[in-house]
């Protein structure tokens, strides 16, 4: 597979010089104050003095002078730079309500950062206090109820490995570096969704801290309206301190992996075969054909003017069953192929989504995205031709530009009624996106942005744009409806729930339903 170039995290946000501010509390008790005070400059020392004593042992409060600051403020895309003046790294779930209440009482804006793979530019409007989830890595299997309790800071890699060692699997994203909560709150696509639905669909209970600091349980019988909202629009409503999700006994010892590199002349054959694959089982994907993913990009070992199609397939079962389904792809004629059978935890490394893979650690600057039900093969050819033309015109972009495609098995996702969760895109299990590295200020940035928008327009064609909230770029051309659903009742319901659970709109930095 062609790999993403590596980029070093460049300019990190530095704290502004600390100027002496007014004291946080006046003599008046808080309940006599019409409005809590607003601070202009948040000071580490003040937060340490006032909040520190109330937090559990092992919690840390620090600013930019701390060695840990750089790692806890870097994002996958370097231009995502929320302005973190103070970081509070909590050591226990119970700390979170104290931090949130302290922030709300003092009009301090706060934002959770977990694994830093948030990619929407809406994060850049943030200035204030970070709640770091880094220390909340707890995992507790309950075999009797076939569930696992996961703390708010976990990410896929260790969770998959731990469960597998104990004979279980659970739904996660396909990339092992990504935080599980952030991903679930937006739905969550991964290799088990053909069998078990979205990652959010497997969650039976959330422990949540609301904007006022209250700790509540959210499930099908307790705050059920919020349970609906957390599964697709969850970033807008609270801090998840932990959640309980279904686990399933492992059903196979090995997964089958098959990768192909095809030259551009095979494009029609490939996309027609992909469309067939995703409808082969009475209109849905064979459930065990879990995940196919591919990029169209330059591979210098083949050509420096014509991109190739590099694809891989992950099958949740034996090689012979997988190869029967892959026969149409085998018949196309690849420039190179690779086949392996590995335990489930290792499938990500092969598909380039393991923790050690470059794709997981650093991203490029420019992206655009859409969701599809099936490929329009004519449009795919136009996209290919566009690629050839753009890199002729802007040769520097040839090293980083790519069209990426993710096709998930869709049966269980579509079996769940669309109105039962806030996730609005159940019909569209193909995610496409454009990526290119073009640093701010470089002469390639404007062309890369134009290309991103033009590629998106070709994918959308005559359809309505569909934006997966977890892949949204935050550009103004992505409408709120394209993210949260076109049916008017969806945004109405979400706005009603905002008024009820977050009336002061504290959670407004990640694809906000209500921006201000
Ligand atoms: C390389 C890469 C691979 C990806 N792979 C997949 C994939 O396979 N499947 C998929 O569905 N998506 C995938 N995504 C998208 C991913 O779901 C989102 O980027 C997700 O928000 C990342 O979560 P994070 O914790 O890593 O990032 P962060 O930036 O730390 O978190 C993103 C946002 O989530 C919210 N959040 C995080 N933790 C909490 C919490 N405990 N409580 C409340 N809110 C919280 C906050 O609003 C935060 O701003 C991928 C993204 C990248 C960059
Ligand atoms: C920052 O992260 C890198 C890579 O994970 C790690 O090697 C390094 O030790 C971290 N630095 C600090 C100060 O935690
Ligand atoms: C639902 O949440 C309530 C409140 O936290 C809790 O008492 C109850 O046990 C939860 N039910 C399930 C099935 O998790
Ligand atoms: C397809 O649907 C028909 C009618 O519902 C059913 O009889 C058949 O078993 C299904 N086939 C598969 C492969 O699920
Ligand atoms: C992912 O990383 C592993 C370990 O470094 C490597 O063997 C593998 O080839 C990488 N996968 C891809 C697709 O680049
Ligand atoms: C497919 O793409 C072509 C070329 O962009 C476009 O003309 C056509 O309308 C599209 N078809 C559908 C069904 O969207």
UniProtKB/TrEMBL annotation:
Signal peptide annotation: 1-21
Origin: domain of life: Eukaryota
Pfam families named in the record: FAD_binding_4
InterPro entries named among the record's database cross-references: FAD-bd_PCMH (IPR016166), FAD-bd_PCMH-like_sf (IPR036318), FAD-bd_PCMH_sub1 (IPR016167), FAD-bd_PCMH_sub2 (IPR016169), FAD-linked_Oxidoreductase (IPR050416), Oxid_FAD_bind_N (IPR006094)
Keywords: FAD, Flavoprotein, Oxidoreductase, Signal
GO function terms (MF aspect): FAD binding; oxidoreductase activity
All copies of domain FAD-binding PCMH-type, residue ranges: 79-250
Family: Belongs to the oxygen-dependent FAD-linked oxidoreductase family.
Protein name, as recorded: FAD-binding domain-containing protein
Naturally occurring in which organism (per UniProt): Hyaloscypha bicolor E
């Amino acid at each position: 597979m062609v790999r993403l170039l590596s980029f070093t995290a460049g300019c990190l946000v530095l704290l502004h010089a600390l100027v002496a501010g007014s004291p946080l509390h006046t003599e008046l008790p808080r309940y006599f104050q019409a409005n809590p005070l607003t601070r202009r400059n948040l000071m580490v020392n003040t937060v340490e003095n006032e909040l520190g004593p109330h937090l559990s042992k092992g919690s840390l409060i620090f600013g930019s002078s701390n060695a840990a600051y750089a790692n806890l403020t870097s994002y996958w895309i370097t231009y995502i730079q929320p302005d973190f003046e103070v970081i509070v790294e909590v050591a226990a779930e119970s700390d979170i309500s104290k931090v949130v209440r302290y922030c709300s009482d003092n009009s301090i804006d706060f934002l959770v950062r977990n694994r830093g793979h948030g990619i929407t530019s809406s994060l850049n409007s943030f200035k204030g206090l970070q709640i770091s989830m880094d220390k909340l890595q707890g995992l507790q299997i309950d075999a009797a109820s076939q569930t696992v309790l996961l703390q708010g800071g976990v990410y896929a890699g260790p969770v998959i490995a731990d469960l597998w060692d104990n004979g279980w699997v659970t739904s996660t994203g396909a990339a092992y570096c990504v935080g599980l909560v952030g991903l679930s709150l937006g739905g969550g696509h991964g290799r088990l969704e053909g069998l078990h639905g979205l990652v959010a669909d497997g969650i039976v209970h959330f422990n949540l801290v609301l904007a006022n600091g209250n700790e509540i349980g959210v499930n099908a019988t307790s705050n059920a309206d919020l349970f609906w909202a957390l599964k697709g629009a969850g970033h807008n409503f609270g801090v998840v301190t932990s959640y309980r999700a279904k686990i399933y006994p492992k059903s196979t010892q090995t997964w089958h992996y098959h990768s192909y590199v095809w030259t551009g002349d095979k494009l029609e054959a490939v996309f027609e075969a992909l469309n067939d694959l995703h409808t082969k089982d009475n209109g849905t994907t064979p459930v065990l054909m879990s995940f196919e993913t591919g990029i169209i990009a330059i591979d210098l070992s083949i050509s420096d003017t014509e991109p190739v199609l590099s694809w891989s397939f992950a099958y949740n079962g034996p090689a012979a069953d997988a190869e029967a389904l892959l026969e149409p792809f085998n018949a196309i004629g690849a420039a190179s192929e690779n086949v392996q059978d590995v335990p489930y935890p290792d499938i990500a490394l092969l598909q380039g989504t393991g923790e050690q893979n470059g794709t997981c650690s650093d991203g490029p600057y420019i992206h655009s995205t859409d969701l599809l039900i099936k490929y329009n093969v004519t449009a795919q050819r136009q996209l290919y031709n566009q690629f050839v033309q753009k890199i002729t015109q802007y040769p520097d972009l040839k090293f980083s530009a790519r069209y990426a495609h993710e096709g998930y098995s869709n049966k269980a996702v579509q079996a769940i009624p669309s109105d039962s969760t806030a996730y609005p895109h159940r019909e569209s299990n193909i995610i496409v996106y454009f990526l290119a590295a073009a640093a701010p200020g470089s002469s390639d940035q404007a062309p890369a942005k134009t290309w991103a928008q033009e590629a998106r327009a070709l994918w959308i064609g005559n359809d309505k744009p569909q934006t997966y909230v977890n892949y949204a770029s935050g550009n103004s051309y992505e409408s709120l409806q394209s993210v949260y659903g076109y049916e008017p009742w969806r945004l109405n319901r979400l706005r009603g729930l905002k008024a009820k659970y977050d009336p002061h709109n504290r959670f407004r930095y990640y694809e906000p339903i209500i921006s201000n």
